[in-house]
Amino acid sequence: MAATLQSCSFLLVTFIIIGMPAIVAAGTFQPSQWTLAHATFYGDETASATMGGACGYGNLFVNGYGTDTAALSSTLFNNGYACGTCYQIQCVQSSACNSNVPYTTVTATNLCPPNWSEASDNGGWCNPPRVHFDMSKPAFMKIAQSQAGIVPVMYRRVPCVRSEGLRFSLQGNGYWLLVYVMNVGGGGDIANMWVKGSGTRWISMSHNWGASYQAFATLAGQTLSFKVTSYTTKETIIAWNVAPANWGVGLTYSTNVNFN
Ligand SMILES: *[C@@H]1O[C@H](CO)[C@@H](O)[C@H](O)[C@H]1NC(C)=O
Fold it and tell me: Which terminal residue of the chain has fewer beta carbons within 10 Å of its beta carbon, N or C?
């Protein structure tokens, strides 16, 4: 359900320094350094166990994430602010590694909670302060043989490459708006968010859980616009008139603005 939008996107700025051409994209997220961690998998080949994860993306096929996903240990999860972030993961130092696959790319869609009944080096893989990826089984099987159970990996955070714009999934009611933000490009994460009804000023939304933000405001019957600030790059973009005045709970509205 596309809406009419106005983009407030940031310009690609190209600097040509004599003898050393360089392209600098304002607000663009840059990959992090490769770092050692470990990876396991959860669920089966269907990845059905990965649906309805802690980020609130619901059905990952419907919402564009598919099976290339992972649950993050709480050290990485950052109370849900890491929802939507993207990682390249490479299996290393194990005979179970698929040597023909350099790495696979996943989006964080879930939390791998600690289990203090298990030692951090023997089953409690997601216990803090461990940095751990509990991948969907299809994603894990791209880089390693599943019989291994757990493998060392090198990982780095990378920009999320998304076709199309931000998507806003609405929940709540006419007096309490709960919004799940999906298909976030660039850093993939969100620090702050505001909603503007056609009859209101910009209203700051508070972080609820996962990738959801809420406003306690009367917004029924108003066209909704959203302003979103990236957690990593601090870039802010506005998606105007995302949802029409007759917006409905349970519906997801697409836009044509995104981070890059
Ligand atoms: C935590 O670990 C214990 C011991 O292995 C296990 O019985 C239990 O099911 C685990 N809890 C969760 C929530 O997975």
Answer: N
Could you tell me the distance, in angstroms and rounded to a whole number, from the CA of residue 142 to the centre of ligand 1? 27
Which residues, in sequence order, are CB contacts of 46 under 8 Å at separation 6+? Answer: none
Question: Is omega for the bond preceding 129 within 30 degrees of 0, making it cis?
Answer: yes
* 257 Cβ neighbours under 8 A, 6+ residues apart: 5, 7, 8, 9, 165, 166, 237, 238, 239
For the chain, which domains are there?
35-158 (2.40.40.10), 167-254 (2.60.40.760)
Measure 114 CA to ligand 1 centroid, in angstroms. 10
Is the shortest distance between the CB of 119 and ligand 1 below 6 Å? no
CB-CB contact of 116 with 127 (8 Å): yes
Whether the full predicted model's pTM is greater than 0.85, yes or no, is yes
Residue 251 contacts residue 19 (beta carbons within 8 Å)? no
Locus of tokens 């790495």: 103
pLDDT tens per residue across span 63-96 = 889 999 999 999 999 999 999 999 999 999 999 9
Residue with token string 């044509």: 256
**Among 245, 248, 70, 243, CA closest to 167:** 243
